[in-house]
Amino acid sequence: MAARRELTDFERGMVVGARRMGHSISDIIREFNIPRSTVSRVCREYLISGTTSHHGQCSGRPPALNDRDQRRLRRVVSVHRQATLRQITAEINVGRTWDVSDRTVRRNLSSLGYASRRPTRVPLLTARHRLQRLSWAREHIGWSLNEWKTVAWSDESRFQLVRADGRVRVWRRPHEAMDPSCQQGTVQAGGGSIMVWAVFTWHGLGPLVQLNRSLTGNGYLQLLGDHLQPFMDFTKGTDTTEDVEALLL
């Protein structure tokens, strides 16, 4: 069976205009070569809606979530990043005359660009930490490449021997990976761990030193004397004539 051809708005207007001028449905069928059912349907829709434009009347039932619902859905997800799909659906259904399903909400989230992803793992920084890092970056924004070549970067870090539970997920769009509400702060705890210290410069990697205990002030100075200073002396033997200056972060 051939698919029904939908009339253009212009053709619908001609049909309605002819009917209002007193032409019979049979006359319109012969004049425009349009099936009787189509002429009857166009005239009936005009009487109901008062317009000759079909506005997608043959596209099926209206969407479960209209534009207003989708704006609300976007707000809910933006506020509750770690909510489950079921929790989001329950929130959307509050105050509605009929409920939508989890599947409908997931489909609408996808159309808005959201997907359930693991939160981006970043160091757990306080507001003070962020301001300090920003201030440091601004102080050194004008440094040249040669100046950066004189820097030795060192730090210590603790590594877990057993990974933490990574089942937390957030709803976000592709460009929101670094949004604070889409991140999960990481802390070093549980499952056993080791602490190491390392250093590197433009000229190469320095030693990786395992630390058996937390560093005190004197212990840190001894670490620098035992490992950083020899490494700095070694870098002086490269093709640069500049000394390497330790910049401890």
TrEMBL record:
InterPro entries reported in the protein's UniProt record: Homeodomain-like_sf, RNaseH_sf, Transposase_5, Transposase_Tc1-like, WH-like_DNA-bd_sf
Annotated ranges, domain Transposase Tc1-like: 70-141
Cellular component GO terms held in the UniProt record: nucleus
GO biological process per UniProt: DNA integration; DNA transposition
Main location: nucleus
Places the protein is found: Nucleus
Lineage: superkingdom: Eukaryota
GO molecular function, one term: DNA binding
Protein's name according to its UniProt entry: Transposable element Tc1 transposase
Source organism per UniProt: Stegodyphus mimosarum (African social velvet spider)
